[in-house]
Automatic annotation (TrEMBL):
<dbReference type="GO" id="GO:0051020">
    <property type="term" value="F:GTPase binding"/>
</dbReference>
<dbReference type="InterPro" id="IPR002710">
    <property type="entry name" value="Dilute_dom"/>
</dbReference>
<feature type="domain" description="Dilute">
    <location>
        <begin position="1"/>
        <end position="126"/>
    </location>
</feature>
<dbReference type="InterPro" id="IPR052072">
    <property type="entry name" value="Vascular_dev_regulator"/>
</dbReference>
<protein>
    <submittedName>
        <fullName>MYO5B protein</fullName>
    </submittedName>
</protein>
<dbReference type="Pfam" id="PF01843">
    <property type="entry name" value="DIL"/>
</dbReference>
């Protein structure tokens, strides 16, 4: 059950983040607030079902950081440093794309300046990020089955001659 929910939450993360990276109309402060609220509801649900140890919440980290990125101030070099230290699960390319797509929804907000985006790129130069922008929503985690040893001992097993396994020797 834990593995199923980890996979499901990864798919939610990948599809939501990919939509955020592809749609200018959703890159705003209010979307960041809505995403953060919805993610907190998912995390609360995991706690209520006692699935915190499943790793499902950790798969949402890129989406959480994208939501926080949408909510942060984006003007000064201190803001740039805060973004760089906060967005560790996002690649440089994803951060820059979100900043480029950021669209103010009211007159109190301003567009992100080109100088600010260049400052972010300069600070993140040392990262060895993969070159991909979008997450692979078809990625599957390996399924792990617990090992349950059998109570039957190997010397009590009888191999029928019809199986032609004469090359096996009992030790």
């Amino acid at each position: 059950i834990q593995q199923v929910f980890k996979q499901l939450f990864y798919m939610i993360n990948a599809i939501a983040l990919n939509n955020l990276l592809l749609r200018k109309d959703v890159c705003s402060w209010s979307t960041g607030m809505q995403l953060r609220f919805n993610i907190s509801q998912l995390e609360e649900w995991l706690r209520g079902k006692n699935l915190q140890q499943s790793g499902a919440a950790e798969t949402l980290n890129p989406l959480i950081q994208a939501a926080q990125l949408l909510q942060l101030k984006k003007k000064t070099s201190e803001d740039a440093e805060a973004i760089c230290s906060l967005c560790t699960s996002l690649t440089t390319q994803q951060i820059v794309k979100i900043l480029n797509l950021y669209t103010p929804v009211n007159e109190f907000e301003e567009r992100v300046t080109v100088a600010f985006i260049r400052n972010i790129q300069k600070q993140l130069q040392e990262r060895n990020d993969p070159p991909q922008l979008l997450l692979d929503f078809k990625h599957t985690f390996p399924v792990l089955f617990p090992f349950n040893p059998s109570a039957i001992t190997m010397d009590s097993i009888h191999l029928p001659a019809s199986l032609n396994l004469d090359f096996l020797n009992k030790v």
